Automatic annotation (TrEMBL):
Annotated protein name in UniProt: asparagine synthase (glutamine-hydrolyzing)
Pathway entry: Amino-acid biosynthesis; L-asparagine biosynthesis; L-asparagine from L-aspartate (L-Gln route): step 1/1
Enzyme class: ligase
PANTHER family: ASPARAGINE SYNTHETASE, ASPARAGINE SYNTHETASE (GLUTAMINE-HYDROLYZING)
Catalytic activity: L-aspartate + L-glutamine + ATP + H2O = L-asparagine + L-glutamate + AMP + diphosphate + H(+)
Keyword Kinase: no
Natural source organism: Arsukibacterium indicum
Recorded superkingdom: Bacteria
Family: Belongs to the asparagine synthetase family.
Length: 638
């Protein structure tokens, strides 16, 4: 696991500023503490930070082909590199290392842009081909590894593994991307391909960027760079039979786990006590019968949020080398660090315990397997069941009746945060007035459209020009290629929440501690197979992940599989009424937030007063505001 960076002169062959590129690369030194490397030639500079996992003695980057005219900088793992190496050697390619990085160079020589079709793994890389004068950048299919880029006005293309790599460049313009602010207060993150900055972008999962300098020689700098999609999640394939699901579900997952056990450094797994991480540990234990699996978990001293007893239960069953830590209910010391870690506004508060479990794991292992992706893949979120119920209602009642009826109820019904869940119907009424895509966006929103309208200042609303975040969901829904209501929202989550929230959280938290995290459930071959499960096998009645849990019954205790899902949450509501009350108030009343001119300060104080008084629970909105304030102060110097 590593960090990559680079500068390409699009319009000329001027020397790249070496000291600037070195500063850019140093900003991500946490991603690769074992080694760094640089290559400079006319018009381009490549940089790399290395965390050594495979071929520790070799595979220094930038890595070249045998003639020295193709170079690569690479972040990730290619799990099928041994087979690719054999195939490429048979085609006449000469290898000088024993790692996975060199397969990328020779695959580019052999297949060009189609090389990405041959890779099985998680990756973000950049290839420079001197003879062709081409720069090729690609990101893995599911978006496990990040890749950012920016085009400066003078024609310099910057790229890197984290946004801070770009912002370190002295010519980078930190002009805000205002639609990103709308997206942030909707989702809690800024979805691909955008960032909080107008001039910086994320590579979309399953996309690449090919820049051919020979085609730019007589042209001015392009104002945009076009990403090309090479893979997508496809829910339109023929569904599997029940017998196929029963016989293949775990065998295929075990194979995805097995290929992720290759490492020349200590390896282990996260074990939360939930279904997905427990499944990964169970399969690892079966594959590593000659040695105990290293596992780690984080518990909470608040029983409402603690799953550590369940993690211990699985650890005992499989006799793992288990280490556990405890997060104090007042452990909010990471607030300042998170803003620096994520480089842009990011509002998932579970980033704090994720940071702590990565910190614990790194004391014992360099590689950890994770259970991320199971809920999206097998229909595990409770909101999926709510969405199906809402879809039944939409099917019964015509839009002409449903929209005014439930729209009115949604406006009139109070927001009963304190009430039992079945009485908290405001969001449901709002969603039922909408179509499936808009309704699901409403369900997923941290702040609903009416709350955002109250929060945003006239200045910000003018900048938005009527833009609303539901456009993100509409754009993806147009490509979903399915009429199945469950598969539609699974697709939406895999394109937005999974990559923008979950995988972003894990990448930054793990790499902050130079820890590599591998995700077997998101192996693209496994995803291609699992998307063919009939929706009725994923959700049966009120049980999500039904087929997955049934397959695991011989391997895990009943209460691990069928207890109520807890999640990896922190007690924000109590924090904001107790130990974080003053910190929150200072942030919300800060000059930075006021001087930005982006928000209605009166509405912010209304949210704060209603929350601290116990009248309402605005903890999610307040945390989102707090993290934006921290970002604005740290990153924009306000």
């Amino acid at each position: 696991m590593c960090g990559i960076a680079g500068i390409l002169q699009l319009n000329n062959t001027t020397e790249v500023n070496q000291s600037v590129l070195k500063q850019m690369n140093t900003s991500q030194s946490h991603r690769g503490p074992d080694d760094d490397g640089y290559h400079f030639e006319a018009g381009i500079g490549l940089a790399h930070r290395r965390l050594s996992i495979i071929d520790i003695a070799g595979s220094h980057q930038p890595l070249f082909n045998e003639t020295g005219d193709v170079a690569v900088v690479f972040n990730g793992e290619i799990y099928n590199f041994a087979e690719l190496t054999t195939e490429l050697k048979a085609r006449g390619h000469v290898f000088s290392t024993h790692g996975d990085t060199e397969t990328i160079v020779h695959a580019w020589e052999e297949w060009g842009v189609d090389c990405v079709q041959h890779f099985r793994g998680m990756f973000a890389f950049a290839i420079w081909d001197r003879n062709k004068q081409q720069l090729f950048m690609a990101r893995d299919r599911m978006g496990i590894k990040p890749l950012f880029y920016s085009l400066l006005p003078d024609g310099q293309l910057l790229f890197g593994s984290e946004l801070k790599v770009l912002t370190t460049h002295p010519q980078f313009n930190k002009e805000l991307y205002y639609q990103g602010i709308e997206d942030y207060f909707t989702f809690g993150y800024i979805p691909e391909p955008h960032t909080i900055y107008a001039n910086a972008f994320k590579m979309n999962p399953g996309h690449y960027l090919l820049i051919d300098k020979t085609l730019l020689a007589d042209k001015s700098s392009p104002t945009a760079l076009k990403q090309t999609q090479y893979w997508d999640i496809d829910f339109s394939q023929a569904v599997l039979t029940e017998q196929e699901v029963k016989s293949e579900l775990l065998d295929r997952l075990k194979e995805a786990v097995d290929i992720r056990l290759i490492a020349e450094v200590p390896l282990g797994a996260f074990l939360s006590g939930g279904v997905d991480s427990s499944a990964i540990v169970a399969l690892m234990a079966q594959l590593q019968q000659d040695k105990a699996v290293n596992t780690c978990s984080i518990g909470f001293d608040d029983q409402q949020f603690d799953e550590s007893d369940y993690a211990t239960q699985v650890a005992r069953q499989y006799q793992t080398n288990h280490r556990s830590g405890m997060v104090d209910r007042d452990d909010f010391s990471l607030i300042d660090k998170l803003a620096a870690l994520y480089d842009e506004p990011y509002a998932d508060s579970s980033a704090m315990p994720t940071y702590r479990v990565c910190q614990l794991a790194r004391k014992h292992v360099t590689v950890a397997l994770s259970g991320d992706g199971g809920d999206e893949l097998f229909g595990g979120y409770r909101r999926y069941r709510y969405q199906l119920h809402e879809e039944k209602m939409r099917g019964i009642m015509p839009q002409a009746i449903r929209q005014p009826l439930f729209g009115t109820l949604g406006n009139l019904y109070p927001k009963l945060d304190w009430a039992p869940r079945f009485l908290r119907a405001k969001t449901t009424f709002q969603s039922l007035a909408m179509n499936a895509v808009s309704g699901y966006c409403n369900t997923m929103s941290i702040m609903r459209s009416d709350a955002r309208a109250a929060l945003f200042s006239p200045k910000l609303k003018q900048k938005l020009g009527g833009y609303q975040s539901v456009e993100v969901f509409k754009r993806h829904a147009a490509n979903a290629n399915t009429d199945d209501p469950l598969k539609l929202v699974q697709y939406l989550d895999m394109k937005t929440y999974l990559v923008g929230d979950i995988l972003t959280k894990v990448d930054r938290a793990s790499m902050a501690h130079s820890l590599e995290v591998r995700v077997p459930l998101l192996d693209h071959k496994y995803v291609e197979w699992a998307t063919r499960l009939p929706s009725a096998m994923n959700i049966r009645g009120n049980e999500g992940k039904a087929a997955f849990k049934q397959a695991l019954e011989p391997h895990l205790p009943h209460d691990i599989l069928y207890r109520k899902k807890m999640g990896f949450a922190v007690p924000l509501a109590g924090w904001f009424r107790g130990p974080l009350k003053q910190t929150l108030q200072q942030a919300l009343q800060s000059e930075a937030l006021a001087d930005s001119g982006l928000f209605n300060q009166h509405y912010i104080q209304q949210l704060y007063q209603q929350h601290v008084s116990g009248k309402r629970d605005h903890s999610s909105a307040l945390w989102t505001l707090l993290m934006f304030s921290q970002f604005y102060r740290q990153q924009l110097g306000q």
